[in-house]
Amino acid sequence: MSIGIITGSGTHALPGFEGGESVSVQTPFGHASVTRGSYGGAEVAHISRHGAGHARLSNHVTHRANIWALKELGATAVIACTACGAVDPSLELGSVIVFDDLHFSSNRLPDGSLCTFFTEPGDRQRGHWILHGGPFSEDIRRALLASAAAAGHPVVDGGAYGHVDGPRFNTPSEIAQLAACGVVAVSQTAGPETVLCGELELAYALMGFVTDFAN
Q1: What number is the average pLDDT over the span 70-92?
Q2: What is the distance between the alpha carbons of residues 81 and 211, in angstroms, rounded to a whole number?
Q3: Are strands 18-27 and 96-98 parallel, antiparallel or unpaired?
Q4: Based on the number of CB atoms within 10 Å of its own CB, is 95 exposed (0-12), middle (13-18) or buried (19 or more)?
């Protein structure tokens, strides 16, 4: 079983990653740069969203290529990390959140197109993704919470992740609107990943690292 790991701002490589092999995966949606190896005893395919040196801002991240590549390389689950701004003022800077809900009402990719793999009428794989159980894998969430507890790292169990379009940051009124919807923290990349993993039936969970107070 291979695990996909997607990292964001400030984490362009995984410390302790063994046998790293960089591969360029060609997909129907462009190429994706993936590093394959072993991490913590597991077979891992790692993608740095922004690339070395943070070359890509949020509006340049190739979400469909990234998720397609992980599926093609045999990933059966995806763990993603995002640096985020706290919308809930009770969150402490440096907190880790394991989200359990999603606010991504635009459902758009950075180029403005709809966030989906299935754009052709009649595609037998198309369908409505029903989210009664929530957008994130509960099994992976529980594993992440247990791992954080075992490592002695404080972690926040649950909360709604808010995806916003970049590359600009949000105004105070926009953040207030998100807070009124129950969003606890916000960033610019994980909404499309959540949806696209769901479409390919890849179990996905999202951890947020709180770096600042969102406006």
Answers
A1: 96
A2: 12
A3: unpaired
A4: buried
Q: Are 134 and 159 in contact (CB under 8 A)?
A: no
Tell me the sheet residues that pair with 21.
36
Contact 153, 207 (CB under 8 A): no
Rg value, the chain, Cα: 17
pLDDT in tens, 170-209: 999 999 999 999 999 999 999 999 999 999 999 999 999 9
What number of other Cβ atoms are within 10 A of residue 18's Cβ? Answer: 11
User: Helix axis angle, 63-72 relative to 190-199, nearest 10°?
Assistant: 40
- For the residues 1-25, what does the mean pLDDT come to? 85
Letter for the amino acid at 152? G
Question: How many alpha carbons fall within 13 Å on the CB side of residue 86?
Answer: 16
For residue range 19-30, what is the model confidence (pLDDT) as tens digits? Answer: 878 889 999 999
CATH architecture of 2-213: 3-Layer(aba) Sandwich (3.40)
